[in-house]
Amino acid sequence: MNDNHRIVSSENEELILVDEDDNELGHLSKARCHDGAGVLHRAFSLFLFNDEGDLLLQQRSDEKRLWPGFWSNSCCSHPRRGESMEIATARRLSDELNIEAALEHVYQFCYTATFGESGSENELCHVYLGKLGGDVQPNDSEIAAVRFVAASTLEEELSRDPAGFTPWFKQEWRELQVNHREKLARYCNPA
Prior knowledge:
alpha+beta; Nucleoside Triphosphate Pyrophosphohydrolase; 4-stranded mixed beta sheet; 3-stranded antiparallel beta sheet; 24% helix; globular
């Protein structure tokens, strides 16, 4: 099967349950982690920039259970049972974008967000910054579209249409802009 169309995730894959200090508590299927109000589990969000300092955004596939068609950060997902964060992030970059990238861990935080009757995110999310390592080739089973955006343009879009972006992306971008500006400036020109 072509790398740009392969199925790379399942509602049955086992995710890692954690407490608010990121201590592992057990495992549960992705589906059950996202049912109702959700169960706190480990996740990650990657912000990747090109040589011009523009951020790679992805539009989530219309087939996604939560926030289909919304714009979000470059890549986000969960480590699976038995996976380290390093292995999980590398796997997901390959699965979704067919690339590799060196990543810098910036911070972690807990958040919850509900998407109507479809379910919720309840995650302890690790946020990373990185430079793109190669041409992006999106997997259309995960991603509807990708685009690069300058920080100033992104700020305008977030002001004009905040409902078009995922809730975790908006929280993470604000946190990076406010409390991690120095690290962010190594990758892009902050707005």
